[in-house]
Amino acid sequence: MKRPLQMTLLLLAGIGLLRVSLFTDLYLRYVKEGMRPLLIASGALLILLGVVDAVSYGRRRGGEEHTDHGNESHGHHHSTTPRAAWLLFLPVLSLLLYAPPALGAYTASREAPKAITHQDDFDPLPGISPLPITLSDFTRRVQQDRTKAIRGRTVQMTGFVTPGQQGDSWFLTRIMISCCAADAQSVKVRIYGTPALPTNTWVAVTGTWHPRGTLGTSSAAAALDPQSEEKIAKPVNAYTDALPLTPTR
């Protein structure tokens, strides 16, 4: 790879990082929100390195024009950069021209679900109805709360639609990441008794626990009998198992 192209690659990579992290929220498709300062700093550093390299290269070329042209070895050295380095242009151009979509139902249907952490003591549930609750907390209440406080309670959860292998149900899903999209894991609650909306549609579902298995034990299914469902706008930061969003009316 020639020196000018190497400088161009640095500049384009820096501009691409700043585009997705400083001027848009596209970076949230790939990393956690807390990574934003590091991405901005990395983008700025790449641009600085590209500019410094360009200035240095320009001065060197200017000096070479005044050297003795009788030197036969002048100008005939070759770059040792491997040809595979050209492949770096592909991800750089994707940052500038096309941002791959966020993870969704395709990933969730192929990855093992996230293990729900164990909890021994549970606080009393608030008396409001429907009760806003995350998919993880609902699963934990169903399978670990021996007081069975979730029985008969109307709850509301939000997530996106993932098709189920069984024709009588589908999954309400959230994807969570620890650092970046590469370590993504999903949590799902099965929804019975209602046709699934299009895959990856974000919805708020209100309903009660679907009685299957022994409530308060690991045999209990994390499942819901829905009373209503409403489409909602996809959240900006979709890689969290957050409390229900406000449905769009």
Short structural description:
The protein is an alpha/beta fold.
Strand content: 15-25%
End-to-end C-alpha gap: 55 Å
Q: Return residue spans where pLDDT drops below 50 for at least 5 consecutive residues.
A: 72-80
> What string, H for helix and E for strand, traces the elements in order?
HHHHEHEEEEE
Strand order of the largest sheet: 2-3-4-6-5
Explain what the structure shows.
With 249 residues, the protein is α/β, with parallel strands linked by helices. The chain has five helices and six strands, in the order ααααβαβββββ. The protein has a five-stranded mixed β-barrel with strand order 2-3-4-6-5. β1, α5 and β2 form a beta-alpha-beta unit. α1 packs antiparallel against α2 and α1 (3-21) packs parallel to α3 (89-97).
Task: List the SSEs and their pairings.
Blueprint: H1 3-21, H2 36-64, H3 89-97, H4 105-108, E1 131-132, H5 135-144, E2 155-163, E3 169-176, E4 185-192, E5 202-209, E6 223-231
Parallel strand pairs: 1-2, 4-6
Antiparallel strand pairs: 2-3, 2-5, 3-4, 5-6
Helix pairs in contact: 1-2, 1-3
Task: List its salient traits.
alpha/beta, 249 residues, 5 helices
